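Dear colleagues,

As part of the handover before I leave the project, I'm documenting each prediction I ran so the next person doesn't have to rerun anything. This entry is a single chain, and its sequence is reproduced below.
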Amino acid sequence: MSPLLFEQETYKIIGACMEVHKKMGSGFLESVYQEVLAKEFRKEEIPFEDQKKLNLHYEGEKLNKYFIADFVCYDKIILEIKSVSFLNKNLESQVINYLKATNKEIGLLINFGEKSLKWKRFINSKPSV
């Protein structure tokens, strides 16, 4: 069995999210988790950019429209955080679209809004080279 793509990096990111959820619990606004998670990333020395503008392209041409990801970690993993009662398909589609539009290979969707932290890992199976 081959190792997961960016396994160590995603493990560290999810661990930082678990630490934040353990200390904060659920019920805060997404913006609160965003700020606290940035502090945790700095503490754990996880490189990140928050509120990262993701340019979109169509047939090789840059579009005027763009996405804003909550975080891009290690310059290669898109992290979208939520504080909702449950994760639904629309939220999953958001991360998948981010991956397709940016050609990043890994996306994480983290939900701080439930009693225990929920997360999903997505792989862009057809990134452009």
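The longest helix spans residues 7-24. The chain has a mean pLDDT of 92.

All the best with the project,
I.
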